[in-house]
Amino acid sequence: PNPASPPVRGAERGGLGVFLRQGAEGEAVIESLAPGSPAEQAGLQPGDVVKTANGTAVKDPSGLVALLGELPP
Asked: What pTM value is reported for the model?
C-alpha cells in the first residue's frame, strides 16, 4: 500500500472486468472479459496485450493489477 494514499474500501474500488494471464514473454494478456464490463464497453478483447494503463508502462499482469489498485474508481 502507498502510505500517502488512504486505504480503499471494497465499496469504493472500481473494476474493469478483465481476467488476465501472463503471456509467453511475461506480458499482461486479456484472457476474458466480464459481460457488460467497462473493458468490454471500451472495445477490449480476449488476446489483447496491455502495454500501458493510465500513461504508465505495464510489464506483467501483477504490475497492471498494482497500478489499477492505486487509481480511484
From this structure: 0.76
Torsion angle defined by CA atoms of residues 28, 42, 52 and 71, in that order, rounded to the nearest 10 degrees: -100
Query: What backbone torsions phi and psi does residue 4 show, to the nearest 5 degrees?
Result: -80, -15
- Give the model's confidence band at 6: pLDDT under 50 very low, under 70 low, under 90 confident, else very high: very low
Report d(CA 34, CA 12) in Å as an integer. 19
> Could you tell me which residues are beta bridge partners of residue 57?
52
**Helix (H) or strand (E) run with residue 25 in it:** none
Query: What value does the CA radius of gyration of the chain take, rounded to a whole number of Å?
Result: 13
